[in-house]
Amino acid sequence: MTETPSPRILVVDDDKAVRIALKVNLGKSYQVTEVDCAEKALKLLDSKAMDLILTDVAMPGMGGMALMREVRENHPEVRVVVMTGYGSVADAVDAMKAGADDYLIKPIERAALILIVEKALEKKALLAELVSLRQEVQDKYGFENLIGTTPAMLAVYEQIDAVADSNARVLVEGPTGTGKELISHAIHYRSSRRNGPIIRVNCAALPETLLESELFGHEKGAFTSAIRQHRGKFEQANGGTLFLDEIGEVSPAVQAKLLRALESGEFQRVGGSVTVKVDVRVITATNKDLLEEVRGGRFREDLFYRLNVFRIQVPSLSERKRDIPLLVNHFVKHFADENNREV
After folding, report:
1. 255, 214 Cβ separation under 8 angstroms
2. Which residue has the higher pLDDT, 227 or 51?
3. Sign of torsion, CA 288 291 296 300?
4. pTM recorded for the entire structure
5. Between these two residues, 222 and 276, which has the higher pLDDT value?
6. Which residue from 254, 256, 261 is spatially nearest to 281, judged by alpha carbons?
7. Which among 47, 145, 161, 253 is least surrounded, fewest beta carbons within 10 Å?
């Protein structure tokens, strides 16, 4: 079994005694490299990957703050901890504001050193895991997972590309099982909100009273079972996308509250008086003809036009019969992989 290499730490300080002390204290657990100036550190980073930099703030030539800015711009995955003397604590505070992960005050105590190094490396590992998970989700729900080469599906791809990198609300209409949720995810992950959350609500699965609380949240004591404050899906999706599936099933009362939230970007939790403001892009989907629902008086016309800023009509399978072999191959491979079987 291959051993996992120990984390790599770069010590940057013009004081040789400090560099040696840090290497002695960290050398048993980590791969420690030390240089006496920021310029050498930057040159080294171009050829050798590092996990963490411990840098003095005050050095001849380029200082620690300038080094940190260069690292943040060109090597954002590397964590940075600054070191400074008792008389320059303000420098450490400024460094934290500028993006340092932590700071150490000289003379450095070994216990504090080990604790802060471990914390910075743990943060790096968590950030790497987050990037990996985001990529995994993007691979699962990205544009490439939409299957089909018929003209009807190519038109859908063009519409996704046209609307993705905007804040326009999108209404996705199509029969059940045609991939409306995949389309919503493809829009989200091709937009500038891709690093924000995408939150799904199945509007058909909840009764009116629960759906309102699910969307807008509730305050403690708002109703019998409200034993604590609950943040609704609008708040959870702040900075990202809210996907409202089966929007055609929403009751008139919830439609009215949804309209107000879309008009102003503000709402109040159930049982609350505090106004909550969010930045959310809304994508909706339905297997109904929503315009026909409006004509029949079952869906608010003003809400329909708020949601129907950009409409994507997903073709039924009968409109894309040439895609059936592609879909069959996709699902055969998917379920074979899932069940550890040969195709």
Report:
1. no
2. 51
3. positive
4. 0.60
5. 276
6. 261
7. 47
